[in-house]
Specification:
This protein has 6 helices and 5 strands, in the order H-E-H-H-H-E-E-E-H-E-H. It is an alpha+beta fold. The chain has a single domain (22-152), classed as Aminopeptidase, CATH 3.40.630. Strand 2 and strand 3 (86-96) form a beta hairpin. The longest helix is centred in the first third of the chain and has 15 residues, at 8-22. It starts with 7 loop residues before the first helix and ends in a 16-residue tail after the last helix.
Length: 168
């Protein structure tokens, strides 16, 4: 029998099936937002490391502060990837006054490259679509511009460049 070489697409598809056999995408009730706190802290640390201009913001930003703002939204959805009993990634989406937002997306580094971010974002986008949002936004932190091509795959386009001063 002749050995067959797999294309990159075939290998990626097999990896996704293999990964998803061990993992599941779940929706976390907003009352249980605290379950993603360890992952959110990793994301905040990532932003702190990458930031050139706002390290002070990320070093003082707390999960309590962030979750209060999120829980004040009209509609909030938290999607997560679970491997066994461990959360390895999440995506938060919200809607307020008909405008949707992908608020936060994080995948643990060792689980990246298996399309988990795509699956979480697709879940969030489907949820926002079901709410008939007139627009959907995503804000990419300064220093994390490498994430922009990922969001462009979902047809997001740059609309503004926001410059900011944060007074201590």
């Amino acid at each position: 029998m002749e050995a067959r070489c797999l294309s990159r697409a075939d290998m990626a598809a097999r990896l996704i099936v293999s990964v998803m056999n061990k993992m599941e995408i779940i929706e976390i009730p907003k009352e249980s937002i605290h379950e993603i706190e360890p992952l959110w802290r990793e994301l905040n640390s990532h932003h702190h490391e990458k930031s050139n201009n706002f390290k002070g913001h990320f070093s003082s930003f707390t999960f309590t502060e962030r979750s209060k703002k999120l829980l004040a939204m009209d509609n909030l959805a938290i999607f997560a990837v679970k491997e066994n009993s461990e959360l390895v990634g999440y995506c938060i989406a919200s809607s307020n006054n008909g405008a949707g937002e992908i608020d936060s997306l994080y995948i643990k580094p060792q689980f990246r490259g298996a399309s988990l971010g795509m699956l979480l974002t697709e879940s969030a986008m489907a949820w926002l679509s079901g709410l008939n949002c007139s627009q959907i936004s995503v804000y990419v932190a300064e220093g994390n511009e490498d994430a922009i091509p990922f969001y462009e795959k979902f047809d997001f386009k740059t609309r503004f460049h926001v410059l900011q001063i944060i007074n201590s």
